[in-house]
Write a structure and sequence with these properties.
Largest sheet of chain A: 7 strands, mixed
Number of domains of chain A: 2
Radius of gyration of chain A: 22 Å
Helix content of chain A: 40-55%
Number of helices of chain A: 14
Oligomer: homodimer
Structural class of chain A: alpha/beta
CATH class of the largest domain in chain A: Alpha Beta
Number of strands of chain A: 14
Strand content of chain A: 5-15%
Shape of chain A: globular
Mean pLDDT of chain A: 96
């Protein structure tokens, strides 16, 4: 036995970033402390009380009475996959809104589940219009599922869901909404809006480290699950197995990520303490302030007017400014992370997140000031202080 | 808008358990502290250095040179699913050793991937014999994959892998080994033993919170992946996408669970500091001491002699002792968690883990003493001190 173990490693010593990209966002100290709570077994009676509290608080944040409301043991994308692989059987038609990277991903995942996918495309940054949804639902004899991205992280667009949900009901179609970048920041009303299947991620507006996907399904979706004629292709994400663990039977499925559930518990407790209404208002005001600031600096917002996220703002990179170099300077000189564009928007936009614990007045002032300085260095003309002044005006309004 | 947000929750305040069940194990304070390290973005240059260190240390712990060696963003079961869904195409034959719950699970997962599964069964607690493996490989024109559970968490049996691996090569079959309850505790030599695909979990002998699945595949497996004619059914676990993120291209796939990767980094650093050899020896000695103690108390070990895990010991529940009540008293009066039996072994065995940071001399003394006391209360005759005395004798030997 000659074991290779003379490996060297560096001591963990991360820089302290202000995370204003598309996620992860900064984590509140209470959430960090929660991860230090002693590990107990995943079937420990104490852990059961934590699970119950977590499910209860998740229901409040999703604004739902759905019994099956729990965190999936994977990142947001695992929630997307669970939302599709449990409900799609090979040959089912799925209508998916594709107006950004996450819509593209949803279509890809649905295809891997065997769906015949009808892509509803729109320009990246625009919303999917109800007329197009209606036409697609009408076109097929039976559409199993309509999937839309509520908050398109790749474009900054906020998709309206109410009319889409009504149409899904009219055509007896399951309605799936991705709320990864909206839950805990934008208004999300699962029951009132009639969303049948909904998932999110922890590292955006919930301000928890990445690693879990909050998930909720209603009775209609569960009935569709029961009527399946084939096994769900994923064992790990099989809702009928997961629901036996996240229910009073607590039947062992897999070992829940205990520390991450503690973290989510605390992140949700912070939301309950703040009040969901207050939290949505905070994100609204901060998003508006940032956007006013960016426009006052002479920059153009990318997403369709009237349909912009508060939680994530896409702004066009001005001519003559080099994307990567600009973001590297922001990171290296100011310790601020913002996101670049993805796919067709690569090099064309920046994505600035104000999510959860990162959505603060001082972060708005900070990022606008740092951007002003760096833009000036790149020869882009900005009226000194214009951005911060415009933002402060919004922040001080009622 | 009438938001439901008058939800109450309890402040996190877990009991401090000594975790001697089938996992999770107790977490070292250095690992807890690592989770407090500031979150950075998943594409941050700093995080790239953490990923590299983590992959390097994982290679050392798996004893492999495999380039693609990284943690999957899910618990151990997600590693099992990734090991199958990437390599199995519908109609492929998979030979799976089923001598416990996790072998059963592997067979189930393989079937969901479309495999024609040949189950190699053995009594729960016994190993799968090479003759049976050979016969199964011979029987089919082409077997795509042979899957075995190295350390059967449900029975305490340690499956020998060397001859199985040789047979897999002889019959040109991919060889998959589940090392969830062995990696970082029992000897695991991926390259020397010729394992093509191997996964584990973080919450057992690595003594990290649950949430990640260390994973490694060699070139032979990657070539099989490249020769697929259909897309992998899981997007979340698609290795060709995951490998673009966990490689020098760092192409965005999903948001890695930053804090969990920090924790794994630190847990691996602890192994490097201890020395892999020393660590395996520690587990060996502690397992032997516990088993000597249990036998000296008059209890019977469940797993086949000569094939017992050091990391997890299955012991038969004596007549007249009530399983659940006994474990509840151990938990409530001593804050010690041990596991019960699963499936056909429910009510028949207890499973006592000595994994990673939980594998200490004082935990052996503690659990034997507490068990002696509770067994006596249940009317089972134990020579006072016999268990601890026998264990200490092993512990003090060279």
């Amino acid at each position: 036995m000659s074991l290779k173990s003379n490996i060297s490693y560096k001591i963990l010593n991360p820089p302290i970033r202000t995370l204003l990209g598309p996620g992860p966002s900064n984590v509140h100290p209470r959430v960090e402390m929660a991860m230090l709570a002693p590990i107990v077994g995943h079937l420990d009676p104490y852990f059961v009380t934590v699970m119950e509290d977590t499910m209860n608080m998740l229901r409040a944040v999703f604004q739902t009475e759905n019994e099956l409301t729990f965190p999936i043991s994977g990142t947001g994308s695992s929630g997307m996959e669970a939302s599709l692989c449990n409900f799609i059987q090979p040959g089912d038609v799925a209508v998916i809104g594709v107006n950004g990277l996450f819509g593209e991903r949803m279509a890809d995942v649905a295809e891997r589940c065997g769906a015949v996918v009808e892509q509803l495309t729109a320009e990246w940054g625009h919303i999917i219009e109800p007329d197009a949804i209606k036409a697609a639902l009408k076109k097929h004899k039976k559409v199993k599922l309509l999937g839309l991205i509520h908050a398109e992280t790749s474009t900054g667009a906020l998709q309206p869901l109410v009319e889409a949900s009504r149409l899904a009901k009219e055509y007896d179609t399951l309605f799936l909404a991705d709320t990864v970048t909206s839950l805990g920041g934008q208004e999300v009303l699962v029951d009132e809006w009639g969303i049948d299947i909904c998932y999110s991620g922890t590292q955006k507006c919930l301000s928890c480290p990445p690693g879990l996907s909050p998930f909720t399904v209603n009775k209609k979706a569960l009935e569709a699950l029961k009527s399946r004629t084939s096994k769900v292709q994923s064992w790990y994400l099989d809702l009928s197995l997961l629901s036996s663990y996240w229910s009073s039977s607590r039947f062992y499925h897999h070992t829940a990520p205990i520390s991450m559930v503690y973290a989510l518990h605390e992140a949700l407790a912070l939301i309950i303490d703040e009040g969901i209404d207050n939290r949505v208002q905070r994100h609204l005001k901060h998003g508006a302030a940032l956007q006013a600031g960016l426009e006052a600096m002479g920059l153009k917002l990318h997403a369709q007017e009237g349909h912009r996220l508060s939680t994530l703002t896409a702004v066009r990179i001005p001519e003559g400014v080099e994307d990567l170099k600009f973001r590297q300077r922001l990171l290296n000189e100011y310790n601020i992370e913002i996101g670049g564009g993805l796919g067709p928007l690569k090099g064309k936009i920046w994505r600035i997140g104000l999510m959860g614990h990162s959505s603060t007045q001082h972060n708005i002032i900070l990022v606008l000031s740092a951007m002003e300085k760096l833009l000036q260095l790149d020869g882009f003309k900005v009226n000194p202080g214009a951005g911060v002044t415009a933002a402060l005006k919004v922040l001080s309004s009622n």
